[in-house]
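TEACHING EXERCISE
Course module: macromolecular assemblies
Task: Read the component lines below, then compare them to the predicted structure of the full complex.
Student: A.B.
Group: 4
Components provided:
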Amino acid sequence: MNLAHVHLLLNHFPTIGFGIALGLFLVALIGKNEHLKRAGLVLFFLIAALGIPTYQSGSAALETLCPANQCPPGVSMVTIRAHEDAALYGFALMELTGFVAWLGIWQFRLLSRAPRWNVVAVLLLSILTFAVMARAANVGGGIRHPEIEAAPQAPITTGEPVRGFARGIGQFVTGHTWVWPSCETLHFVGLSMLFTVVLLVDLRILGMAKKLSFAGLYQLLPLGMLGFGMNLVTGMFFFLGAPEQYTKNPVFYWKMVFVVLGAVNVLYFMLLDEPWTVGAETDAPLTAKLVAASAIVVWVGVLFFGHMLPFLGNAF
Amino acid sequence: MLAFGDFGSALYMMDFLRLIEQSSFSQWVTGSSSVFAFPSILLLHTIGMGVVVGISAGIDLRILGLAPALPLAPMEKFFPLLWIGFGVNAVTGTILLAADATTKLTNADFYVKMGFIALALINQRLLRTRVFGEPLVDKKPLTSDVKLLAVTSMIFWLGAITAGRLMAYLGPVSGLAK
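Instructor-supplied answer key:
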């Protein structure tokens, strides 16, 4: 099994998985079922989280299939670049959908129903995402299956120069000396925002500052999500600037595994009732403590693997 | 350039910095291929930053109106952890400085970073007495000078992070072993 296999495995989540999530969400809207709506939002969020390694494994698959830009016979670099661009548009929309869906899950807890603005926003974004992602999948399928490219609406037939959107961003990042340091600085700011939430919420659950109730701490969660969002954007700039630094770096895979674990971890605090039993001066239940401790391990782990990219891995 | 005693010349200062840099400890920090040398010391410095800035920003943002259901007074309990983080960064920062004295101490950006940290610490003290020295802090609305201190606190920490990050890019940049 190589990295191209990983991409072929993961790439079903943003396409088929997202389609299933959209179907579920539509059924929930028609049936006016609040819990099913929330289940749909949760699926959108989780698939958006899995979309991160999916996109990145695509760049790894490219390097496996076409080392040093030398593709085997029958494989067109133009098709690959077109797939990469379509996937990047789809990925950006999917992450936005996931972010908005997360806000909906967060507010659901306070309102006991899905907020109306959120349902409308997620519906529009997810339909758009699904359409763009389906196109990315279609173009991607053509890389190894030229028979589907022969369809009348085959998007890529001309031999346009191999540059495009993703490579354009990459060249913008590496072509200006100020971009990388600026993104790094913002990446550290985002890290600190995430740490604010991880430390205050999880250390309270573990028993520090016991006068704080979980209800108060819950209001902090969007700050952490905003920090994560900043770091996803700045992190993608790094990735697009120097993809091979990450795709050939096992430390980076661990970082992404931990990011996805972090996404699963935060859902405990949003979906389960247990942490809400933590009022002022109350001791948290054992499961809550274990999840809180694992949150600290996961996010320090993300920081650890990110930091070690050049040391244990082979970046720079 | 800083003067240094009777010798008072920039050249002497550079010799002194080189001496620190060439001590066997400094050589180990930068030269060792061990992951416990430079990589781990820098890792602790980054985690310490997350703890110090994370907790400070949490208190600052709460003062500015984020998470209104969160009482402010109990947040004082996070201060010991903040100071542990600060201590870790003072120690690891000194080690990183000693390992790389000739480039860092001749880099204006390093002094900008130290300036921001000094301001952040003074700000921290002022804020702490005004907020946590007030027993009725959660009963009364926060005054505008407390809010201003929360804003300046965040500005100073943002400045310290930015100046710290840019030390790898601005002015003399060390050729640390990768």
